[in-house]
Amino acid sequence: MLDVLLKNVEIYDGNKNKPYISNVGVKGEKIVAINNESTDSFKTIDCTGLSVMPGIIDNHTHYDAQITWDSDLNSSSIHGVSTVVMGNCGFTIAPCRESDRDLTMRNLTHVEGMSLETLRNGINWNFTSFEDYLDFLDSKGSALNTAVYCGHSSLRTYTMGSRATRENASTSEVNAMKDIVSRSLKVGACGFSTTLSGQHNGENGIPMPSRLASESELFELCQVVGDFGHGTLMLTKAGNTPIDFIKNISEKTNRPFIIAALLHSNLTPEVIFNDLDQIKKAQKEGIKLYGAVSPCPLTMEFTFNEPYVFEGLKTWNPLMSATTEQFKNYLHSKNFRDEFKAELSKKSVRLFNGEWDKVFVVNVKDSKNSVYIGKSIKDIAFKLDVDPVDFIFDLALSENFETVFTATLLNSDEDAITSVLQHEASLVSLSDAGAHLTFFSDNGYGLHLLGHWVRDKKVLSLEEAIYKLTKQNAEIFGIDKRGSIELGHYADLLLFDKKLIGRGNLEKINDLPGSGSRLMTPAYGVSGLWVNGKRIITDGKRVNEAHLPGKLIRQFVN
After folding, report:
1. How do residues 127-138 score in pLDDT, each as one tens digit?
2. Superfamily (CATH H level) for 56-297+413-480
């Protein structure tokens, strides 16, 4: 007898095959029947009018801290995600010595937009080594399947201490890091991740440790994965990181390599397509490069207490380590304003390029400024006949940095994103789930792809989009028997309504440890989510909260 029978459901199998109506039978953790036969089952669900696909595999999350207090991995679970890959960009929390915990949390507060109070109240530091961390996750349990990268910045901090953000590693230190990577792979790491991005800074604007690594250090650590013969490499590139540099590592290690974050800028529109074309060329040579792209416009909420949007500008660097009084003096200074304006006037690959028409006032402290709510900085400045920089600095200063703004920074040109999503080299990615909690929430990136880009814009076929969210990730990471609906595969199943699937507008909720707030989007059209045969979502809501059916994935076949 079956445990669950999804009857009369339209099946999208994840392999890009045309959909068909049939029944899907589940027993235990596996799919054991795909046919039109009438079969006895403890639970039969009439799915007429609904569709089923494999659960989404989110390849770019930062749940490394959150999972220690939130086994549900909210809100990925409500957005149809059944498997998450954590530890991207090298921002892991293991290995970590007890003496480095506060530094690690402070760095995460800055680079990933997390509340320090939330991290201090929430993280369960029941581990030191990477091996301990995986064992802790295994014993704790999770609603979703998880895979974890071994992260470069954690390796450097563990090996070098405070010198990790200032110096090259010695030969012995590189060897010590290589040994940790090797041991991490043996106990179940899915690969190795790192970042070179100038936007990735820790506390006081100090570069995250991996940014100090030499090319030889980076190559030697990647080569450990190559020697191991399994595992995926991942790097967030700087604006000037050549694709050929990454291609060379991938070719020599013979490992798949995910390159992030390829985002479209209206001021430098050619950059993302040049990168994708070079990646496509490498693929045709048999080199497994993938360009991580997002289907979502990158819209951030921010205040001048956390002005993350400006941190890619060199002019802003001194402000990241300034006291509050020094910070105010900088913003008042005409010399600083002139330097800031001059840098903004030059095209560059960075998060913010002075598109003030895409920066809006969302909330104000002083009621006299309420006339600005809902208006762009460009329009307000034009009406007042002032420079946009002067206006936003003056407004923030006058309200003691409590003014709330939103900025649509990248990926705002839908024609361009159409071409990006259709590009052969693109890998749909970059949810950043678990990070930037006060800035944006793209946990529902998969639902956005299926609703906005497939149903509404018809940019991709539904079967192609589902492949990009499921089977393609399983293939790249070597996650066996997941990502497709086939006999004998794990029953990670997303039941959905094609007419409703999508995500809603940003909402602010206060559910983090220490009553911390975060942004999230509601999920639409998610009728059910099963992980390893257990239903955890019904009509967009968590059910059977005691069930934590997710598995820590420790073996990979790539």
Report:
1. 999 999 999 999
2. Metal-dependent hydrolases (3.20.20.140)
